[in-house]
Amino acid sequence: QVQLVESGGGLVQAGGSLRLSCAVSGRAFSSYNMGWFRQAPGKQRDFVAAITWSGIIYNADSVKGRFTISRDNANNTVYLQMNSLKPEDTAVYYCAAHTGMGTDYRRSYYRSTLYDYWGQGTQVTVSS
């Protein structure tokens, strides 16, 4: 079993910054593709950013230039640095892991159904 635990969410004013962390229990973390998704009340879960096992990064257009995904394989952790936050960034943020082979991740990184394991989420609230 792979477990993911998000942390770092909170309340911040527009223009501020937060760094989310996702601690992953899997012993093969360095081979996982990792993603961040978010879900606002009453809305669908949307892709935010992803990073492959080799370090290739993908970003949603809505966060390009503001958010940065990174990973620390030595500590089984993936991060989401969020700068210049806007009220529309308010959502529960989820970390997810894609552990398997056999899927062309490079074509489907934005699809939530591709991911095998999910954290419980951390709330990010941006006030105006």
Description:
There is one protein chain. This protein has 128 residues and is mainly beta. Helix content is 3%, strand content 46%. The strands form 2 sheets. Strands 2, 4, 5, 6, 9, 10 and 11 form a 7-stranded mixed sheet that branches. Strand 7 (67-72) and strand 8 form a beta hairpin. The longest helix is centred in the C-terminal third of the chain and has 4 residues, at 105-108. The protein is globular.
What class do helices, strands and sheet pairing give?
mainly beta
Largest sheet: 7 strands, mixed
Which stretches of 5+ consecutive residues score pLDDT under 50? none
Q: Radius of gyration, rounded? A: 14 Å
Mean pLDDT: 96
| Apparent shape | globular
- What oligomeric state is this? single chain
What is the element string, with H for helices and E for strands?
Answer: EEEEEEEEEHEE
Q: Measure the end-to-end span.
A: 40 Å
Relative strand content: over 45%
Q: Number of DSSP helices?
A: 1
Helix content: under 10%
**Record field, number of beta strands:** 11
